[in-house]
């Protein structure tokens, strides 16, 4: 789903009331009945059909075919508009520019405030086509078979916001968080490029040490990135310093699989430097040693994040999805690439 903010200024206040009503109705209904939309929006039944038709034509809501009743779902387009309207009303964001990145679970855009200062808008989009196809065949979400991807995306954004905010406040090399609404995060723009685009560096040993030091600093603060690789590390053009991004999968060092996540982060960096720069070092952090040296006393950021409002319940819900994205899905993609389509799965 590509963000299109062209029509945002033309959406009326009544149409936004309908969008909000569909969103609120989605908390208890997979398909929101028209009667409930009328009730929540407080609009007259006679005019609601025109508003719903206008929103459906813009692909901000979608009518569900073959439903037992006349019902609608909020689309990512509608969710985008609700989030951007919230950011605009708070004077956090004024205009939307070009898309600068796309990932397996997010889209990245350049935006600006009223003074023209550039920022980055990240829209979380869990439930891409490939994941939905798999979910229809296998229940990787356990009991959460009817999980709303909009809700999961919102949780993902809230988690990333909580971690980015606490990391920024404590001097970690991360973008500065500016605002958050629904599934969107607004953050500072950094003139940098992904590590995956770097073909050579003047001193690979120095950069290697810097990246390993960040892993250690995270762990000493009670955190593990969980997806620490060349795709989620930026190199600043100005001074070559690394910036770490993408935190929805971050876990606490007290997590039951913490050592596995830690070792994987370390191995991702070692493998990349060996492959790209032909640099290999026998020095790399060990989880147990780092934890022992950090001690059990002192301020732990994982505790602070939970205290900020994003607690264990929300973490557990997201982990069900993150496990698929980070572990099962890469393995399935490899299988599909080798064996081609099988049992109805599409090669991606």
Automatic annotation (TrEMBL):
GO terms for molecular function: ATP binding; metal ion binding; protein serine/threonine kinase activity. Residues 65-293 form the RIO kinase domain. It comes from the Eukaryota. It is found in: Cytoplasm. Belongs to the protein kinase superfamily. RIO-type Ser/Thr kinase family. GO terms for cellular component: cytosol; nucleus; preribosome, small subunit precursor. Its cofactor is Mg(2+). The lineage of its organism: Eukaryota, Fungi, Dikarya, Basidiomycota, Agaricomycotina. It comes from Hypholoma sublateritium (strain FD-334 SS-4). Its main location: cytoplasm. GO terms for biological process: maturation of SSU-rRNA. InterPro entries: Kinase-like_dom_sf (IPR011009), Rio2 (IPR030484), RIO2_wHTH_N (IPR015285), RIO_dom (IPR018934), RIO_kinase (IPR000687), WH-like_DNA-bd_sf (IPR036388), WH_DNA-bd_sf (IPR036390). It holds the Pfam family RIO1. It is an enzyme of class 2 (transferase). Keywords: ATP-binding, Cytoplasm, Kinase, Magnesium, Metal-binding, Nucleotide-binding, Phosphoprotein, Ribosome biogenesis, Serine/threonine-protein kinase, Transferase. It catalyses: L-threonyl-[protein] + ATP = O-phospho-L-threonyl-[protein] + ADP + H(+); L-seryl-[protein] + ATP = O-phospho-L-seryl-[protein] + ADP + H(+). Its EC number is 2.7.11.1. This is Serine/threonine-protein kinase RIO2.
């Amino acid at each position: 789903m590509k963000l299109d903010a062209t029509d945002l200024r033309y959406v009326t206040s009544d149409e936004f009331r309908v969008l909000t009503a569909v969103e609120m109705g989605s908390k208890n209904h997979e398909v929101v009945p028209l009667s409930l939309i009328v009730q929540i929006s407080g609009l007259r039944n006679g005019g609601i059909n025109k508003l719903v038709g206008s929103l459906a034509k813009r692909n901000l809501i979608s009518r569900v075919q073959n439903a037992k009743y006349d019902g609608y779902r909020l689309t990512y387009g509608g969710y985008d508009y609700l989030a951007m309207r919230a950011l605009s009303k708070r004077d956090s964001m004024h205009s939307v520019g070009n898309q600068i990145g796309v990932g397996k679970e997010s889209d990245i855009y350049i935006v600006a405030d009223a003074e023209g200062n550039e920022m980055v808008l990240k829209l979380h989009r869990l439930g891409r086509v490939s994941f939905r196809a798999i979910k229809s065949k296998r229940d990787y979400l356990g009991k959460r078979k009817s999980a709303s991807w909009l809700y999961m995306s919102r949780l993902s954004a809230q988690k990333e916001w909580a971690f980015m905010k606490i990391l920024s406040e404590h001097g970690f090399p991360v973008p500065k968080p500016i605002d958050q609404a629904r599934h969107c995060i607004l953050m500072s723009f950094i003139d940098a490029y992904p590590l995956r685009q770097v073909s050579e560096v003047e001193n690979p040993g120095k950069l290697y040490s810097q990246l390993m030091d960040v892993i250690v600093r995270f762990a000493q603060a009670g955190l593990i990135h969980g997806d620490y690789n060349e795709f989620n590390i930026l190199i600043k053009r100005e001074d070559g310093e690394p910036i770490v991004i993408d935190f929805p999968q971050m876990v606490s060092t007290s997590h039951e699989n913490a050592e596995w996540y830690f070792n994987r982060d370390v191995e991702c960096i070692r493998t990349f430097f060996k492959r790209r720069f032909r640099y290999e070092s026998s020095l790399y952090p060990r989880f147990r040693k780092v934890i022992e040296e950090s001690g059990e006393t002192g301020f732990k950021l994982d505790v602070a994040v939970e205290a900020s409002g994003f607690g264990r319940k929300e973490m557990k819900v997201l982990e069900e999805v993150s496990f698929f994205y980070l572990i099962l899905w890469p393995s399935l993609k490899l299988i599909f690439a080798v064996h081609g389509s099988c049992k109805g799965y599409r090669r991606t």
